[in-house]
Amino acid sequence: MRSKSSLIMIFLVLILIWSCGSRTEAEKIVGNAIVAHGGENYFTSHISFDFRDIHYQIFKSPKEYEYSREFTDSTGRVKDVLNNGGFIRTVNGAQIDTLTDERVGAFSRSVNSVAYFAFLPYGLNDPAAIKSYEGITEIRGENYHQIKVTFKEEGGGEDFDDVFLYWIGVEDFYVDYLAYSYHTDGGGVRFREVSDVNEVGGIRFQNYLNFKPMDKNTPVDKMKELYISGELELLSEINLENIEVN
């Protein structure tokens, strides 16, 4: 009996070693970044914050998610909810059933975008994310792993053709910079630099300075050089306020 148990244990250890060894360099770096930014705290935490006078609540586990936002406009108190089941908008507690597919898509993308950036780098391990390692590079005297992320069409959402670059610290595995290209709403490209950090409930939340190039068709892989040379224009600030983690 003891011999059989020992064989099972050895077998499990070999599976674990094979699993760890089969991970790509990009997956290992992203995994370390997720641990550095919050790790297991992401899996069970319900997070709320204010962004541009809109209140957001976010929950995302490996199997399910629910993102919501609430604000007041000329129609009354609006609440949008996006989860595994789809998108719902209510106004003053009554569900709105007259939204066109185009409006539902726009609202869903807006909610999802805020949740995605607030949860970085957690979302980079989604099954639809394709990660590739592009080596070590230097930004302002610090060394960074450069990771490129694209998305599979299946499971990648409406924005599956967006391209992201992340610069992850070699020493601390923090995501200090990122750039991305997008095709919705006329398309464009952005570069973000971390401007401030708030650690709440064991999770690292980052604010950003959001830059754009003069030419919106600039390739995303040119954004780092433009940032270093001071050729990007500061477009906005991305600040999360009143953060709570339960």
UniProtKB/TrEMBL annotation:
Pfam families: DUF6503. InterPro entries: DUF6503. It comes from the Bacteria. This is Deoxyribose-phosphate aldolase. It comes from Algoriphagus sediminis.
